[in-house]
Design goal:
Helix 7 crosses helix 8. About 0% of the residues have low confidence. The strands form 3 sheets. Strands 2-1-5-4-3 form a 5-stranded antiparallel β-sheet, with helices on both faces. The two termini are about 45 Å apart. It has 9 helices and 12 strands. The chain is α+β, with helices and mostly antiparallel strands.
């Protein structure tokens, strides 16, 4: 089932505004219609009742009435209908007379007769005939006064008056209300748009400011307008952005100082280390001429000096990445040949490393940095995982260009789940999960930076058969 996209805030605001306007218009029109309808009908029925009562009171009666007398009375009354012409029906005992051709009317109901019998001043009722037309039926008894009391004479006159004119008046009012509602709603769109704009403008400004802030423009601020809740939100955003800008500036300054310190220390250490390495090489050659304890001490100093030299070189390299001074020197490289030479150079071309190297796979990359990547991955697998280490090379066609995929898998216990998220962190050593490392903790971090410099990715996981699995993915045509 296709999900309907949610409406925007502007649309919802305008819809809510128009809904309120529509409800208000309908409510007002309904109340106005009810009041006007009641007033129109009340005026008609009051006039009719009053007219019929006045005419009945002035009508001379000679009781008991004959059929001719009853007919004369209803005929005269039928000519005096107000405010609209009416039909008059008279009932006197068993006698019936009418100002029309029909002796009785279906509009005169039994309910109206009971009301007239209970009210000597008369009664009325609004009814609808069988054709659905509205009528006003008024019943008025003829009485005579006796000792200030109204005594019925037995004569009851009913007047039925169609309410077609009043109905037309009410229909005209309804039509006018309808015609006025549509332009009213159309006009209501204008203040709805203005209201939506006044609400959405600060929201839009805040969204754009948040986007700029996310892009690193920490000096972004919002213009505060007014003193409402949105203005308060804008002030809070500005205060937060200011505090964030200050904190980030302090962090950047501290990070810059740390980078400069590491770079300066590395540079300062290179010269004395070069002399120390030269001396330890000479001492290594003559160690066999010393007593065993002295020879062991010399070899220890030589090994630790070598580690210190590697650490300094790694610090120098990571400093270049931090300063964005690392450059690519691209060349057309045979991948299989580059892998074999890298392994031979470090004497790993024995049973400890198994390779799957298809021929005629060429890529444009920095051969020196590729050698560093491969050496770090294979060396890390041999030190922390275990032999045999498997190196496989593949190419993958992609819509955006062919990719080079290299997998380095070891035969060790694998990487602990809690270690995986930190495997490429600087100076991180998973001593609890792997064999104790003698490295600097920068090898994998430098490897990742070299891969990124080529526009590739490097991931670490555990292989399906156990052991750690590092997967390198980079374009065959790296851009300098």
């Amino acid at each position: 089932m296709k999900r309907i996209a949610p409406l925007g805030l502007r649309t919802r605001l305008i819809a809510a505004f128009l809904l309120v306007a529509a409800i208000s218009a309908v409510t007002t029109a309904t109340l106005t219609y009810q009041q006007a309808r009641t007033a129109v009908l009340k005026q008609s029925q009051d006039t009719a009742v009053s007219t019929l009562r006045d005419q009945m009171e002035t009508q001379p009666l000679d009781l008991p009435l004959t059929q001719a007398q009853l007919q004369r009375i209803v005929t005269e009354l039928g000519k005096r209908g107000k405010p609209n012409p009416w039909n008059v029906f008279g009932e006197y005992g068993t006698l019936r007379a009418s100002s029309t051709s029909a002796p009785t009317s279906t509009v005169v109901t039994e309910e109206l007769r009971r009301k007239v019998a209970a009210h000597p001043h008369g009664a009325f009722q609004r009814v609808t005939d069988t054709a659905g037309r509205p009528y006003l039926a008024v019943g008025m008894p003829a009485v005579w006064l006796h000792n200030e009391t109204r005594e019925p004479t037995g004569l009851v006159v009913y007047a039925t008056m169609p309410l077609a004119t009043e109905g037309k008046t009410v229909d005209a009012m309804v039509e006018a209300a309808k015609r006025g509602a549509v332009p009213g709603l159309a006009i209501a769109v204008i203040p709805a748009l203005l209201a939506a704009r006044s609400v959405l403008r600060p929201v839009r400004d805040m969204r754009l400011a948040a986007q700029r802030l996310g892009l690193g423009r920490l000096d972004t601020r919002i213009e505060v307008r007014g003193s409402d809740e949105l203005a308060g939100l804008a002030r809070t955003f500005n205060e937060t952005a200011g505090a964030l800008e200050q904190s980030v500036a302090e962090l950047r300054e501290a990070e810059a100082r740390a980078r400069r310190f590491a770079s300066d220390v590395s540079h300062e250490l290179r010269t004395p280390l070069a002399g120390m390495l030269a001396v330890t090489e000479v001492l290594d050659e003559d160690a066999e001429h010393f007593d065993p304890d002295t020879a062991a001490a010399l070899r220890l100093v030589s090994a630790e000096t070598g580690k210190l030299a590697v650490l300094v070189e790694d610090l120098m390299e990571i400093s270049r990445f931090d300063a964005r001074a690392a450059e690519l020197n691209l060349d057309d490289v045979d991948i299989a040949e580059a892998v074999r030479k890298s392994l031979e150079r470090r004497h790993w071309d024995d049973e400890r490393v198994h390779t799957d190297l298809p021929s005629q796979v060429r890529a444009r990359l920095d051969s020196r940095r590729f050698d560093v990547v491969l050496a770090n991955l294979v060396g890390n697998a041999l030190r922390h995982g275990g032999a045999p280490v498997r190196v496989s090379v593949r190419t993958q066609p992609r819509p955006d260009g062919a990719r080079l995929r290299i997998e380095v898998a070891d035969s060790g216990p694998g990487i602990a789940p809690e270690v995986l998220p930190h495997i490429f962190d600087r100076f991180f050593k998973a001593d609890a999960a792997r064999t104790r490392s003698a490295g600097s903790g920068l090898g994998l971090a430098i490897t990742l930076e070299n891969v990124r410099l080529h526009g590739g990715t490097l991931t670490a996981a555990n292989g399906p058969a156990g052991g750690a699995l590092f997967t390198l993915d980079m374009p065959l045509e790296a851009q300098a």
